[in-house]
Write a structure and sequence with these properties.
This protein has 203 residues and is an all-alpha fold. It has a domain of 117 residues. Helix content is 66%, strand content 0%. The protein contains 6 helices and no strands. Helix 3 runs antiparallel to helix 4. The protein is rod-shaped, with a radius of gyration of 47 Å. The N and C termini lie far apart (155 Å).
Length: 203
């Protein structure tokens, strides 16, 4: 166990274990970042995580290889029949089978789905500038209307002021009709029209 080659393989075994398992240990945080970013941004984070994970796989494979080599290099200090050696190798094989049979196919399906969603773009009305605020200037909806008739407003009176007073006067007359002796003098033009009739009756 004190030979130089054993120590070299032992250091290499520890190093590849740190790089391989340490790289994929925080993949859950990258997945959360990908889910919080919609569209192409989230897809880019997810694909970058997959690419780093594929590189980490080679270091994880090297963990088993270097660990296996340590047993014959230990000068019978470590044997394959030892409980901890058998358990370590068994757990490694189970974890590797789970990764290749379930976890990685699931990640590939997620990548295909995210790629399709990113290609479809945001749903209608969920993204993009409001109408009339694009680079081409205001749209036709925001342009001033020039085909409307002019509105004449008297100074000092808001629109509809006279109509409101006329309507109120009409309602008051319907409630309290005037009697003949309550009526005021006739207008000047109406008086001039009725003079010939009065002269004929007087004659």
């Amino acid at each position: 166990m004190n030979t130089g080659i054993y120590k070299f393989v032992l250091v290499l075994h520890i190093l590849v274990a740190i790089i391989g398992f340490g790289t994929v240990f925080l993949n859950g945080l990258y997945g959360r970042q990908a889910s919080s970013r919609r569209g192409p941004e989230g897809l880019a984070v997810f694909q970058a995580t997959l690419q780093v994970g594929k590189v980490a796989e080679y270091f994880i494979y090297a963990v088993f290889v270097t660990g296996f080599l340590l047993v014959p290099l230990s000068d019978d200090a470590i044997e394959f029949g030892d409980t901890w050696v058998s358990l370590s190798m068994g757990l490694y094989i189970v974890a590797l089978a789970f990764s290749h049979l379930l976890h990685q196919p699931n990640l590939r399906r997620m990548e295909v789905l995210m790629t399709e969603l990113a290609a479809m773009g945001p749903p209608p009305g969920a993204g993009g500038p409001p109408p009339g605020s694009g680079a081409g200037g205001p749209g036709p909806e925001s342009a001033p209307r020039t085909d409307l008739p002019p509105v004449v407003v008297r100074a000092g009176r808001p629109p509809g002021h006279g109509a409101g007073r006329a309507g109120a006067a009409g309602r008051a007359l319907r409630r309290h009709p005037q009697r003949p002796h309550d009526r005021g003098p006739l207008p000047h033009d109406l008086e001039a029209l009725t003079q010939p009739c009065r002269r004929g009756l007087a004659a």
